[in-house]
Write a structure and sequence with these properties.
heterodimer, A: 74 residues, 3-stranded antiparallel β-sheet, 2 helices, globular, B: mainly beta, 6-stranded mixed beta barrel, 4-stranded antiparallel β-sheet, 3% helix
Amino acid sequence: MSTESTTPKREWPPLEPGKPVPGAMEWLKEHWGEYPGEWVAVRDGQLLGHAVTLDELERQLGGSLKIALIARMV
Amino acid sequence: MSRLLHASGEPFATGEAPWTAQFALAGDRLTRLFVEMEVEGLSATAVVDTGGAYLILNPVVAARLRLGRDAMVHTDRLVIRGVAFGGTVYRVPITLPATAGESLTFEATAFVPELEHGETWPLPSYLGWQGCLDRIRFAVDPADEVVYFGAVGG
């Protein structure tokens, strides 16, 4: 699995507490069938990363899962 | 935005958010209603399950949260999709983030299943009825794919 194309190109600031993750649900509606069995991280309508485990996804996001909405795909 | 009003004029709901119908497991015949939730600053998806109990928190996700012993309530055993799981029950604040109106934070009773060594959790998290959805006002609009929510007595 290549992670190069999904690794964030910039530092993502922490999410605003209590606010929806922008563009996340819209992305999930469009892409739910993709990355089966993997965890995805989504923000601003973009896929920030995807991995089989949350540990790997966390590494891709630079050490924190709290910068995006996470979901396990089917 | 359209919201039901009580006779007093008090709104039934104070916030709304989108939901999406997706399969929860590969091979499922029916889709489930997924919404966004936030627990301990972590944003994730969960299935609305009025036939279930508690907030069933994916144990892989729960492992990344700071669920301290002071939040523990007791241990319990639940049958989830035909499989019995032991686990720990916590009280945790969760937030339903609103795309319109106000987000809603409330205290839910969360069940975190304990996995055996090497066991995986294939299911999502679930917002069940007892100890979770029964603490808020909640309605679903299937036409516009929107959920409405508000505090009880708030």
